[in-house]
Amino acid sequence: MQTKIKVREQKILLVDDLDYNRQLLRNNLTMLFSREKLKYKAFSYFQAHNASSALQTFSQQLPEMVFLDIELPDGSGLELLKRFKEQKPDCFVVMVSGVSTLENVKTSIDSGAASFIVKPFTGDKILAVLKQFDRYYDKLPKQAVEPLLQKP
Q: Which terminus of the chain, N or C, has fewer Cβ atoms within 10 Å?
């Protein structure tokens, strides 16, 4: 008898102070997951509008992917990035900002961000990040990916 392996929904945390940006990002992600040939298609979304709610949600959910704005009303996304990577080093963090200075991009990547998207973002930019995410998770050690696979 063959055992079926069920893939658990992965978790995505969307952090931006503007509800419009979070909704636009979620809509783009949902559309891309349904339309494109990506390895991971099942996701649960969580949202945060500031640094304190992002920290709390991240600690509770431990998402596999985070889209993180740099400028938040009560803190820096760059500082959050460091804290997220301390809690979950294999988390795939994408910085999203309208301030795409060389310093912001370099600091983000040096601090562990997997990618950087400039606002206003497009579906093509998000798709490129999702393909990067697929490749990233394929390279993770097996014990890091096993919690995503469950036998019914």
A: N
Flag whether 42 is in a domain.
Answer: yes
pTM, two decimals, is 0.86
E-strand ranges in 1-152 read: 6-7, 10-15, 43-48, 65-69, 71-72, 75-76, 92-97, 115-118, 149-150
**pLDDT digit string, tens, across residues 92-109:** 999 999 887 899 999 999
Q: Is residue 148 a part of any domain in this protein?
A: no
Question: Domain span at residue 43?
Answer: 6-141
Per-residue pLDDT at 147 exceeds 70: no
CA angle 37, 42, 48 (to 5 degrees): 115
List the CATH number of the domain containing 106. Answer: 3.40.50.2300
